[in-house]
Fold:
Amino acid sequence: MVKHAYYIASTGQNVGKTTACLGLFSGLRKRFNRVGFLKPVGQEHIETGCGHHVDKDVILFKEHFELSTPYEKMSPVLFPSGFTRDFLDGKISEKHLRKKITDCFASMTADHDFTLLEGTGHTGVGSIAHINNAQVAALLQVPMILVASGGLGSAFDELSLNKTHCEHYGARVAGVILNRVLPDKREMVIKYMNKALAQWNIPLVGCIPYDSFLSNPTMKDFETLFKTTLLSGEQHRMRHFKQTRLVDTSLENYRDLIAKSQLIITPANREDIILETLSYHWDMKIAHPQTDSEAGMILTGNIPPKASIVEEIKKAEIPMLYAPLNSYSAMKLITSFTAKIRREDVAKVQEAIEVVENQINFDFFTKGS
Structure:
């Protein structure tokens, strides 16, 4: 077993594994001279300027932490469209995939004092090609840390399921990190989760409190959600909002509740609401030239906004997009949407690092498990 390497996997999708890895990586760099990052298997990938197809999380870590390791050594295996069919048709061999992973891992551990490996989803992701997270951790003989979301009962159930899966393939679960724990229940959760984990002789190495900002989407996220692009305010794609308002009320009621940093969802033909939003923006700008309303708009309905309205919104540089569905459907999509951390969203990346790093027992990692 490699002494200073850990494999971070989660109990499910959208649990906060990348968030946990950001804080872990930052803290480890303060304790080890050279820390490497490896994503053995990736699903969501991006083409770099050099033409490499790389897992999006690898790009996030390489760019934010200014890592010198080449992309191809940090992201050895990808599951692009058609991969599963090609594998089952025998066009891609399991032996080849495993060799790519082991070669990159050997190179990474030779060049670094500590290697942090990030898995993909729950421990079973990748099973179709016989390289799921548990299998990869066992292949590399790296202990695994499981990230689970929430409190006690449901979190422990998910941990139990994934731990059993790991044991089946010979991967050792060495620790647990809980994410998105409600602050007022945190001390209770720590106490009783430690009691529950004691039966497995596995420690709780981190308990990360829920942070609403980390779940707060940007306008770029909404572009992805609604499969469209901004019609104005492109320079504010990474803007976050303190409040999201579905506006179908009277102008008077809207005026009474308008505030800074609101995302307004309203039909494109509600020009009274749009113009009031613009008026509020310019009033703030005149009173405080260095700031503005920090608003955003999602205009809905079967009829797109008039060109004249779009031009006025452009002048105010308010990020706005048009989604051709009703406002309630738009709001429903937004409330069920899970925002991922993007490399461009520096504020969210930094928030994730600060929130996580302060809640991790780094002695566990420096002393080895």
Q: What stands out?
A: The chain has a mean pLDDT of 94. The longest strand covers residues 114-122.
